[in-house]
Structures are given as C-alpha cells and as structure tokens.
Amino acid sequence: MLNYFLALMVMKNFRIKDKGIVSEQFLNKNIHDFDSACHYISMLPYKRNTYKHDILCVFNDSGGTCSTKHAVLRKLALENDDAEIKLMLGIFKMDAEYTGKIKNTLEKFNLKYIPEAHNYLKIEQKYYDFTKANSNYHDFKNKLLIEKEIEYNQIVEKKIAFHQDFLKNWINTQNLNYNLHKIWEIREQCIQDLKKRDYFGTDNFSPVCYQNSPEVRDEFKQ
C-alpha cells in the first residue's frame, strides 16, 4: 500500500469523462479520476481472466493479471484523450536473487535465470506497476532485458509472440541445450516454486505476475 501512495505523489492525474466503455465502468463505481482508478485496479485480486480479449474482463471477473489490469488503465487513458500513459511489455531476469525460491530449479538445469514477461505503465518517463497494491517497478527494474510499448488489445497473441521470440533468441545466444518447450517447462516449475509457502507458513508474494494459463502453455508447445 505504501508503494501505491508514494507513486501517486508524482503521478499525473485526470478527471474521468463519460467517453467510453471503460470510463463508464469506473464512473458507475463512483471512481472519477485516474489516481482512484489505479488504486481500484491495484486492489482487485490477482487472478486469471476468463476472456482476456474483453477489455472489461477485470470488471466481469472482479480481478485480473498484470496484462489485463494495465490494459484497462491504458484504454481508460485513451478514452480520456491522454495517450501519454503508455502500456509497456518488459522481459526481465527471473533469477535466484529476485526470489530465492527458484534457486534449486535453476541450479538443477544449470540456468542463471529465466526471462519472464511483465506489463506495467510508463507515464512521463516514470514507471508504475498496479498489478497488486504493493507492486513496485523497482523490484525488477535492474533486471530488465528488453521492453517495448504495446497497445491494450495486444496483451494476448502479440505479448505471447514477443516473449516466445525472445526466448528462442535467448536459447540460441546462450548456447543452451534446451528447446523452447523445455525452457517453458522449467519456467513453469519456477512458478510452482514461487507458490510454495515459506518456512514460517506464509505465502510467497511477488510483485510481478506470472502467466500460467493453459492457453499460454499451449502456445509454447507449437
């Protein structure tokens, strides 16, 4: 929560006008400015959406992923004539320094890290992550390998293709003895590692979301 309020101290804001389907959803919830919309989105549960192509899925499902949560904020900005609020797609190093829970899996397969994809916003040369209330761009900033701007309607096929192409090139440049399918399996094991409870019985928290849905897995089996 503290990260959220610190972000709002410097983030630009605008009043929401009744100019589109996303704006209408927020106004119906008595949310009248962008700051409040970001807070609302960050507080929604992290969950896989039933139909990610629907820009309103975070409202229909009462939750979302880094993709759907930031896509709806980008669409809200566009509806209110603020195209400078950008939707970003980054690939970062998911390594044992980032989270020690994947150390054993990485060592088992002799890997230093797995490239992972994440969505967030860029506003006036500053970055913001509203995946969860205490998500913070700086948690993965120094591990970014590449990033690009995408649109709110490119968070499914285009995002998967970008991640897939990056992994293919990474496998080749690192001279790894694994194919894309195997790397994806190792990545899934890392995600399972992250879900494990720690010694004190508390759930692991990561500010970065991880796509682990069947439709994404199937893309990497092709």
Overall geometry comes to: elongated
Mean pLDDT: 86
Radius of gyration: 18 Å
Structural class: alpha+beta
Number of domains: 1
Q: What is the string of SSEs from the N terminus onward?
A: HHHHHEHEEEHHH
Q: Count every helix, treating DSSP H or I runs of 4 or more residues as helices.
A: 9
User: Major beta sheet, specifics?
Assistant: 4 strands, antiparallel
Helix content percent band? 25-40%
What is the CA–CA distance across the termini? 40 Å
Total strand count, please? 4
Classify the beta-strand content into a percent band: 5-15%
Are there runs of 5+ residues with pLDDT below 50, and where? 199-207, 210-222
Main sheet: strand order: 3-2-1-4
Features:
four-stranded antiparallel beta sheet, 222 residues, alpha+beta
What is this structure's SSE topology?
Elements: H1 2-8, H2 21-28, H3 34-43, H4 57-60, H5 66-79, E1 85-95, H6 103-108, E2 113-123, E3 126-128, E4 144-150, H7 157-173, H8 180-195, H9 214-219
Antiparallel strand pairs: 1-2, 1-4, 2-3
Brief summary of the model shown:
The protein is α+β, with helices and mostly antiparallel strands and 222 residues long. It has helices spanning 2-8, 21-28, 34-43, 57-60, 66-79, 103-108, 157-173, 180-195, 214-219; strands spanning 85-95, 113-123, 126-128, 144-150. The protein has a four-stranded antiparallel sheet.
